[in-house]
Design a protein that fits this description.
Blueprint lengths: L4 H36 L7 H14 L6 H25 L14 E3 L2 E3 L5 E5 L6 H13 L4 E3 L17 H13 L3 E5 L6 H4 L5 E4 L7 H8 L5 E4 L6 H12 L6 E5 L17 H8 L4 E4 H5 L5 H11 L3 E5 L17 H11 L8
Parallel strand pairs: 3-4, 3-10, 4-5, 5-6, 6-7, 7-8, 8-9, 9-10
Antiparallel strand pairs: 1-2
Helix pairs in contact: 1-3, 2-3, 4-5, 7-8
Bound molecules: prephenic acid.
Length: 358
């Protein structure tokens, strides 16, 4: 059958499209190289001056029939996808990313491994209040076969008039109580200059939600070889959370546990909204172990167990909750800490859920 005029013309278009495709991808490769140069020079990817030069060249060289405005719109689209390409290239290079390191990172907390496939718990009071208090909690934590104890000595409180924690004195009390039962200590440090001194007391440095973007603190903990538990910021996107972890790892410390602790939304039924799907997203995007803090996300004692079950089912490596000998008189978070009886029931109910789905 003879080719119609339309077929001939379409054949010519197909040929030109193939050439355009090759040229666009040839251009894209150069854009990627420019992206790499910009990365080493810490230059901004978006360059309006360069885009203006390119637009002017289009205006000068355009012989139609497309209008210059139409061509500039097409090229603006090319600049935008080019910028995306440079961004993607940059993201794939993140040290915390799975693309960079496909295998899971196992965080070794003085012999206790987080991220090796065995789901773990960390329990303890919201704040260290006295030696008796942390000693009693440590005894209960040990009784349940848990190796990690938490307790705040530096407390970032919303009101400056609320209990601010016992500071280094509190860290010492917690360390001593933990040592009595061979437990490992997780505690928050808020100030970069306190990090070095804190290394003598803690096995894991916690960077709290309010400090997730305290970049000086992130860099400081990144210079140590202590494991870090990094909590997601109150209103941080997953991308910002990942970049915060990158700050730590870029300084040399790869022993990072990411901790989902709920984000601020319009919902008032819980203290924060537990973003449960952040767990598989973080595990997919990064090679780091992921923890879920069921206390600060829910803010409700009655939701600790279902939230912990959800965390284990969705693949969390570590679940954090709070235990106090007498929550009613606790100096902070009294509505959501468990007493010892509630802790016993919680562990009885949650233990059969450990490592069921992974
Ligand atoms: O020339 C650059 O600096 C580039 O990054 C390449 C490019 C382009 O696609 O031509 C991409 C984005 C910039 O805003 C300007 C130009």
């Amino acid at each position: 059958m003879p080719e119609s005029q339309l077929d001939v013309l379409r054949g010519k278009i197909d040929k030109i499209d193939e050439e355009l495709l090759i040229l666009l991808n040839k251009r894209a490769k150069i854009v990627e190289s420019i992206g790499k140069v910009k990365e080493t020079q810490s230059t901004k990817r978006y360059d309006p001056v360069r885009e203006r030069q390119l637009f002017d060249r289009i205006a000068q060289n355009n012989e139609g029939p497309f209008s210059t405005t139409a061509l500039q719109q097409i090229f603006k689209q090319i600049f935008q996808v080019s910028l995306e390409l440079q961004k993607d290239d940059n993201r794939s290079a993140l040290l915390v990313s799975r693309k960079k390191k496909p295998e899971d990172t196992i965080v070794n907390i003085s012999g206790i491994k987080v991220g090796d496939g065995k789901q773990q718990f960390v329990m303890g009071p919201c704040a260290v209040e006295s030696y008796e208090q942390v000693y009693q909690v440590a005894e209960q934590v040990k009784k349940h076969g848990i190796g990690l104890i938490r307790g705040g000595a530096f407390k970032p409180r919303t009101s400056p008039y609320d209990f601010q924690g016992l500071g280094f004195e509190g860290l010492e009390l917690l360390r001593n109580a933990a040592d009595a039962f061979d437990l490992k200590v997780i505690s928050e440090i808020m100030t970069p200059s306190d990090v070095e001194k804190a290394l003598d007391y803690v096995d894991v440095i916690q960077v709290g939600a309010r400090n997730m973007q305290n970049f000086d603190l992130l860099k400081e903990v990144g210079k140590t070889n202590k494991p870090v538990l990094l909590k997601r910021g109150l209103a941080a996107t997953i991308e910002e959370f990942i970049y915060a972890a990158e700050y730590i790892m870029s300084k040399g410390n790869d022993q990072i546990i990411l901790c989902e602790r709920g984000i601020r939304t319009y919902e008032k039924a819980t203290r924060n909204t537990l973003d449960i799907t952040s767990v598989p997203i973080l595990k997919k995007e990064t090679h780091l172990p992921v923890a879920v803090d069921v206390v600060h996300s829910t803010g409700r004692r009655d939701l600790l167990l279902p939230a912990a079950k959800a965390a284990l089912a969705i693949g969390a490596d570590l679940v954090m909750a709070e235990v106090h000998p007498d929550p009613a008189v606790a100096l902070s978070d009294s509505a959501q800490q468990m007493n010892f009886e509630q802790f016993d029931s919680f562990m009885k109910a949650i233990n059969p859920c450990v490592n069921v789905f992974n």
